[in-house]
């Protein structure tokens, strides 16, 4: 069935609908990963976004039971050049079409995804709608321009209640802003005794759990939409070692007095080069973000830039100069993508060990 993608600037792409036949609007973003579509579809950070994959054939290894990054996908639509109806892989359980249909996510195939990507790169991130051919593009484009996006994404994807993921190692409180399961997997692999808590848990509630470390997860939307998280971070910073990823990194930066801004079209893919400022070592990283910490804003804070993106020099990592706390904009848990940055989880464990040994609240050479 022919369907269309209408962008807020009036551009129309006509393709073949697959997955759900629902009409859906969202922010249209592109991901350059050659594989990993199942992890992308189930990454809660894509909440309210329509994702287009730049790799031309998507769905060829199907959908399996192991690679989900969350149980319920939050993405609003999925756009590909060509989708594969008959996947071939020993792990595959169903096709991309069946998965999207079951989850109520509309797909659109057969459009020129290179043209769409270039449009987003030129104009910047835009709102768009996947709908039937009966919709009038001009009217839809005007409606999109007049619509403000929701600001409550984190509350929609975070856990409602705390839950444990027991282990015999360090006690880690994971604050769930829209957590990818990969983060939990990495902590569990290192025997951490994890308690996952909702995004709006207070500092007092967290301190009462007496953790050895706090993990701030990835999550959707604008970090400025979650002011309660800044309150919480303020209350635990310097008391408990802290590690943040993506939205967690942005929230940490805001709390410490730095600022964030929306990027023109963001970083989404599995091959983003990031340099460690101190060692000059380069890692190829998995990324998915549309906001970034503003460089000038870091100057008069107690933060130090630890990593930069080699594609555009944007900030990719920060650490606190007085307390045991560091954060990264990219995804050390990968899923999907390369595992070059996996050792950052070791760094978190080491930081908790140091804190235990030191038995004091600040660190000398952080
Ligand atoms: N993956 C993330 O945590 C994304 C963070 C934030 N929502 C952004 O788009 O920049």
Automatic annotation (TrEMBL):
PROSITE patterns documented for this protein: GATASE_TYPE_1
The protein's annotated pathway: Amino-acid biosynthesis; L-arginine biosynthesis; carbamoyl phosphate from bicarbonate: step 1/1; Pyrimidine metabolism; UMP biosynthesis via de novo pathway; (S)-dihydroorotate from bicarbonate: step 1/3
Superkingdom of the source species: Bacteria
CDD domains in alphabetical order: GATase1_CPSase (cd01744)
Region (CPSase): 1-170
Keywords carried by this UniProt record: Amino-acid biosynthesis, Arginine biosynthesis, ATP-binding, Glutamine amidotransferase, Ligase, Nucleotide-binding, Pyrimidine biosynthesis
Record InterPro entries: Anth_synth/Amidotransfase (IPR050472), CarbamoylP_synth_ssu (IPR006274), CarbamoylP_synth_ssu_N (IPR002474), CarbP_synth_ssu_N_sf (IPR036480), Class_I_gatase-like (IPR029062), CPSase_GATase1 (IPR035686), GATASE (IPR017926)
Pfam families, sorted: CPSase_sm_chain, GATase
Sequence positions that bind L-glutamine: 45, 219, 221, 247, 250, 288, 290-291
Membership in a protein family: Belongs to the CarA family.
Protein name: Carbamoyl phosphate synthase small chain
């Amino acid at each position: 069935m022919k369907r269309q993608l209408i962008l807020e600037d009036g551009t129309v792409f006509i393709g073949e609908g697959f997955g759900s036949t629902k009409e859906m609007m969202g922010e249209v973003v592109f991901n350059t990963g050659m594989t990993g579509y199942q992890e992308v579809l189930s990454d809660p950070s894509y909440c309210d976004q329509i994702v287009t994959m730049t790799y031309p054939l998507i769905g060829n290894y199907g959908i399996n039971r192991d690679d989900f990054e969350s149980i319920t996908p939050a993405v609003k639509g999925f756009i590909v050049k060509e989708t594969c109806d008959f996947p071939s892989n020993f792990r595959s359980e169903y096709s991309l079409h069946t998965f999207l249909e079951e989850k109520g996510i509309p797909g659109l195939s057969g459009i020129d995804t290179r043209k769409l990507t270039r449009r987003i790169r030129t104009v910047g991130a835009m709102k768009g709608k996947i709908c039937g051919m009966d919709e009038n593009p001009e009217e839809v484009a005007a409606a999109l321009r007049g619509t403000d996006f929701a600001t409550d994404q984190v509350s929609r994807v975070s856990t409602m209640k705390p839950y444990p993921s027991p282990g015999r190692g360090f006690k880690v409180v994971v604050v769930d802003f829209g957590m990818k399961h990969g983060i939990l997997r990495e902590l569990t692999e290192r025997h951490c005794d994890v308690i996952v808590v909702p995004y709006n848990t207070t500092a007092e509630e967290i301190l009462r759990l007496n953790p050895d470390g706090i993990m701030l997860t990835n999550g959707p939307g604008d970090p400025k939409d979650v002011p309660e998280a800044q309150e919480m971070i303020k209350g635990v910073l310097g008391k408990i070692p802290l590690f943040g990823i993506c939205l967690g990194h942005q929230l940490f930066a805001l709390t410490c007095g730095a600022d964030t801004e929306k990027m023109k079209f963001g970083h989404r893919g599995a091959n983003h080069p990031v340099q460690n400022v101190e060692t000059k070592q380069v890692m190829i990283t998995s990324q998915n973000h549309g906001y970034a910490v503003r460089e000038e804003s870091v100057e008069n804070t107690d933060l130090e830039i630890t990593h930069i993106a080699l594609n555009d020099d944007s900030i990719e990592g920060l650490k606190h100069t007085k307390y045991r706390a560091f954060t990264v904009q990219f995804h050390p848990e990968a899923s999907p993508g390369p595992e070059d940055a996996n050792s950052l989880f070791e760094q978190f464990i080491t930081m908790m060990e140091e804190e235990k040994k030191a038995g004091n609240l600040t660190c000398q050479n952080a």
